[in-house]
Inverse folding.
């Protein structure tokens, strides 16, 4: 579609995030988080609710500051929102007053000056085609189903061919069938691009299906406790293919156990 | 990939007409719905007709100074119109109302946006907004006369003063309640601070702003009429007070009805503007008979 630029490489080193420092009772949401994501890689973050997945992905996206450590993208520290970023939010976060086409076109803001009107329109149309929303380009978000909204949010994030794609539980609010379909679509789209992806999810199956590696986080304070490499062959374009795959089942059980043991350990932990 | 079906947006058919290619047309209404639709037009009409009839009968048995009959009010209205009193009074009323109300809209939205975006501005202005919102501002009419005299400026000031607070409060609420995710979207896609205000926070506040504008319209109308009655004795307020003092009840009521008409027309204009300029806002059933 467009010239492929290399995906971003992310380095998270000894990062700490505190909330509410001013009131004295600092709440340490993340401590000593280490994670590196290579160019073009797909990494999922899984972990119990409240372990700091959203905090981490927002810091990588420059939407929130970190209180210690360093996050670098392609070697330079994150200060503000990095360039060529696509971000997919949990509830799609479309502007209700913009049509689907206008919402998707927002994704081109950063590179708008380098594109002619026709080029921009062509890219938006191509992206809409890719996510199956061509017929609904002139609809307002309130006229779309949940799955269609999420597709539009995805199109907005992808239209600029971003170097880094951050997704915070993008399919969390969808029904099971729509979720499966969108997972397959995302797998296909990402496999054809060079973007680096960090993907937050509660769904271990989803993480295994999509990822090159799964970072399992533990809570209070949140940290990355183990990184599991998903050594399943690609392309993995069908979800069914993984259902009876033994290696996939092992990986899923392993990740699930890591998440679960953390949740069980939490209540007995001293405050 | 399978094409997903469109979810009904749950708005009225008049809104859905602007929605897009695949929306269902108004053909093939079930008979019961057709009946219902007819009833929605017929019932209010019937209600008004019965009310007017009762008024006519009761009014016929009462001293015309206490209550005029609808027929006499219509006669008075016609007389005011043909004698050339109503036209200029109406024009004065519209001029006062439009000036004060538009001024209140511009100032109210601007201050509301500032308060909604900046916690500091909000804290600084909140005491005043709360104070004036709670004050019966009509009591300040004598002060307005001392400051602005008894002319156009004073009447516009009273109209403005009554209308502006609801606009400020509603705008600030709408701006403040912009979903944080939408602000994030603005930042991710590199909108400038100014564009975050004009392109995210302000459109987000549009439904609230229109709610505020509707409330403000009623208040502006009150301000305009009272100012014309108490300050200048001109326009519709002037007619009302003059005919009231002369015990010409039919003429008084004709002028009052004209003032209501101004309100109804202005509310409809507001609704039309909302639908044309902001088709994405959900229709509200206010303004329907
Ligand atoms: N704005 C904030 N102010 C104060 N504390 C916060 C804030 N945001 C998050 N936290 C705290 O930081 C911790 C991590 O929150 P975060 O939202 O990152 O978790 P999460 O892993 O995304 O959870 P979930 O899976 O439920 O979305 C929580 O303990 C939460 O209370
Ligand atoms: Mg979260």
């Amino acid at each position: 579609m467009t010239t492929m630029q290399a995906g971003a490489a992310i380095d998270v080193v000894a990062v700490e995030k505190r909330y509410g420092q001013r009131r004295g009772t600092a709440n340490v949401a993340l401590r000593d988080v280490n994670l590196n994501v290579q160019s073009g890689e797909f990494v999922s973050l899984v972990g119990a609710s409240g372990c700091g997945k959203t905090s981490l992905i927002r810091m990588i996206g420059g939407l929130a500051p970190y209180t210690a450590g360093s996050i670098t993208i392609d070697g330079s520290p994150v200060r503000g929102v990095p360039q060529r970023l696509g971000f997919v939010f949990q509830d799609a976060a479309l502007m209700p007053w913009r049509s689907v086409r206008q919402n998707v076109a927002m994704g081109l803001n950063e590179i708008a000056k380098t594109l002619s009107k026709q080029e921009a329109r062509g890219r938006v149309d191509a992206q809409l085609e890719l996510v199956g929303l061509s017929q609904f380009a002139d609809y307002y978000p309130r006229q779309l189903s949940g799955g269609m909204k999420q597709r539009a949010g995805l199109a907005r994030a992808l239209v600029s061919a971003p170097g880094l794609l951050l997704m915070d539980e993008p399919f969390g609010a969808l029904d099971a069938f729509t979720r499966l379909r969108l997972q397959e679509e995302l797998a296909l789209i990402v496999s054809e691009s060079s973007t680096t992806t960090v993907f937050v999810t509660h769904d271990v199956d989803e993480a295994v299906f999509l990822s090159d590696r799964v970072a399992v986080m533990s809570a209070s304070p949140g940290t990355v406790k183990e990184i599991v490499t998903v050594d399943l062959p690609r392309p993995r374009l069908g979800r069914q293919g993984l259902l009876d795959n033994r290696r996939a089942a092992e990986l899923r059980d392993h990740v699930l156990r890591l998440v679960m043991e953390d949740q069980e350990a939490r209540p007995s932990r001293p405050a | 990939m399978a094409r997903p079906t469109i979810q009904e947006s749950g708005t009225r058919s008049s809104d859905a007409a602007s929605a897009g290619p695949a929306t269902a047309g108004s053909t093939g209404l079930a008979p019961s719905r057709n009946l219902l639709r007819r009833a929605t037009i017929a019932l209010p009409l019937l209600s008004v007709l019965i009310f007017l009839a009762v008024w006519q009968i009761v009014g016929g048995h009462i001293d015309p100074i206490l209550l005029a009959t609808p027929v006499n009010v219509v006669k008075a209205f016609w007389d005011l119109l043909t004698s050339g009193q109503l036209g200029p009074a109406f024009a004065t009323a519209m001029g006062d109302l439009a000036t004060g109300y538009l001024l209140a809209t511009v100032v109210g939205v601007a201050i509301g946006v500032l308060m909604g975006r900046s916690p500091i501005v909000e804290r600084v202005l909140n005491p005043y907004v709360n104070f004036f919102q709670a004050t019966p501002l009509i009591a300040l009419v004598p002060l307005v006369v001392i400051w602005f005299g008894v002319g156009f400026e004073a009447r516009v000031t009273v109209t403005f003063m009554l209308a502006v607070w609801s606009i400020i409060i509603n705008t600030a609420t709408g701006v403040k309640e912009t979903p944080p995710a939408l602000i994030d979207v603005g930042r991710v896609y590199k909108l400038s601070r100014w564009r975050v205000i004009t392109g995210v926070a302000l459109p987000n506040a549009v439904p609230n702003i229109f709610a505020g504008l509707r409330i403000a319209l009623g208040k502006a109308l009150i301000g305009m009429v009272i100012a014309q009655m108490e300050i200048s004795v001109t326009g519709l307020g002037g007619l009302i007070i003059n005919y009231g003092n002369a015990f010409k009840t039919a003429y008084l009521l004709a002028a009052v009805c004209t003032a209501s008409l101004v309100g109804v027309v202005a509310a409809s204009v507001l609704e039309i503007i909302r639908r044309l300029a902001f088709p994405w806002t959900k229709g509200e059933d206010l303004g329907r008979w």
Observations:
- Residues A 53-54 surround magnesium ion (ligand 2) (CB under 6 Å).
- Residues 70-281 of chain B form a domain with the MetI-like fold fold (CATH 1.10.3720.10).
